[in-house]
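User: I'll paste a sequence; please echo it back and then give the predicted structure.

Assistant: Echoing your sequence first, then the prediction.
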Amino acid sequence: MQDAIQWDADLIRRYDLAGPRYTSYPTAVQFHDDIGPFDLLHALRDSRKARRPLSLYLHVPFCAHICYYCACNKVITKDRGRALPYLEKLEREIEIISRHIDRTQPIEQLHFGGGTPTFLSHDELRRLMQHLRQHFNLLDDDSGDYSIEIDPREADWSTMGLLRELGFNRVSLGVQDLDPEVQRAVNRLQTLEETRAIVEAARTLQFRSVNIDLIYGLPKQTPERFARTVAEVIALQPDRLSLFNYAHLPERFMPQRRISSDDLPSPADKLAMLQASIEQLTRAGYRYIGMDHFALPDDELAIAQEEGTLQRNFQGYTTHGHCDLIGLGVSAISQIGDLYSQNDSDIASYQQTLGNGQLATRRGLHCNADDRLRRAVIQQLICHFQLRFADIEQAYDVVFPQYFAALWPQLEQLHRDGLIELSAAAIEVRPAGRLLVRSLCMLFDRYLNDQVRQRFSRVI
């Protein structure tokens, strides 16, 4: 299971396609407007009856500065006063949702994302966490996975102390690149010292885990410069590290129009950056979890993958895929049973709807039997790089080779090309296919076509 990744440039050239990251199946592209608050409340009722544990995601959309590469749902403002009206509506949403769950349902996982969650003042963060504790069964023994995304420019030791006091025990730091020229090109000036100070605070305050995000393919990057960034980040010894491919889609994301295409590294340089980074991380003892994620061997993600319990949802790889996920805030997505639902992505509309005492659920979908089966196949491949047909056949009462007969010639081609081992009983992703596992998963995506594919970034 834990073979090193095998780098095969020829396979990468042939299978580096645009496609989903499969934080869900079906993906959010398939969401439609026929899903509303009633559907969400109905799903919450079923969750309450089953007493399923919960995961909460809260979206804080505000940032004081714009990063040109960013594709998140965000509001750029230096007016800290804009947080309070949003916070009031978020609290209203918490109150409404909490009426439809059982207080005995534990919150095993909590994540604040954005935007920049620490855009909120210390008093506002205290107020929000107190409101959550009043309405949900947050764990007080530090056993839950309670994480928050941190911009090191927007936090200091006192912020970290507050977050630990409020119950957070994991942090994810946005770094992207440490080279000053690259930082100027993307409008994110952030020193190594700022990042190191937050990592040291997290260690001293006994946060359980530190994740650092990097992006390759940014303007002005070169393989040599990026290798220095990776080396400096490895020296900080994060427990997890994410290495994302920058997708330049200026027609979809307006801030990216400030990036000149002429400043972007060539495809060959991007591949060189990825290959060198993988080699650096492997030498430093990190394991490739999949889909841009690396972790130290004693990290919970690596252990879960080893034990076959790793899962994937809208929060990425997780050890809490068995939880129902409730998304709170503008654009937040929930996954409750077989329902996916998403809040309004427009902050003014979100706040107005909650101001009227109504949930802001705007779109989503109900998974059908075929969706559930394909979701299980994709989850297994993307989390564990292997799939036993008998497991799917037993769970879904199908004969796997018959159900997917139309795919068999393509699977056989992947086998001949060395991406997978295809037998009568299983699919196993070979080391040369691990970086390209998204391309394998795309075969099982019933909704994917050329038009849909254009909405996504390339695999590498």
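Residues 217 and 317 are 23 Å apart (CA to CA). The chain is about 40% helix and 20% strand.
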